[in-house]
């Protein structure tokens, strides 16, 4: 089962990693994209805490080195929020 919202967020972050002028932001975004890609097809979906940590890292990148791709990062964050809206819990 593919979690489409997480797969979309992963694709957006890969694009942002390619488009950013910062090597540090590119590496961080690529790592986060890989995490979301794995989570999108894992046997068990991620919980709110795991996704919150990813979103916190996205916020750090977009307010720092990733300013040039902040809109794409925001779109990825929105996709994660959409997935989280269907999760039970917090």
TrEMBL record:
InterPro entries: DUF7553. Residues 1-25 are annotated as: Disordered. This is Uncharacterized protein. It comes from Haloarcula pellucida.
């Amino acid at each position: 089962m593919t979690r489409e919202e997480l797969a979309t967020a992963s694709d957006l972050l890969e694009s942002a990693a390619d488009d950013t002028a910062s090597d540090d932001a590119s590496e961080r975004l690529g790592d986060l994209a890989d995490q979301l890609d794995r989570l999108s097809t894992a046997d068990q979906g991620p919980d709110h805490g795991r996704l919150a940590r990813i979103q916190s890292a996205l916020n750090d990148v977009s307010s720092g080195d990733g300013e040039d791709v902040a809109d794409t990062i925001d779109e990825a964050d929105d996709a994660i929020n959409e997935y989280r809206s269907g999760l039970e819990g917090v």
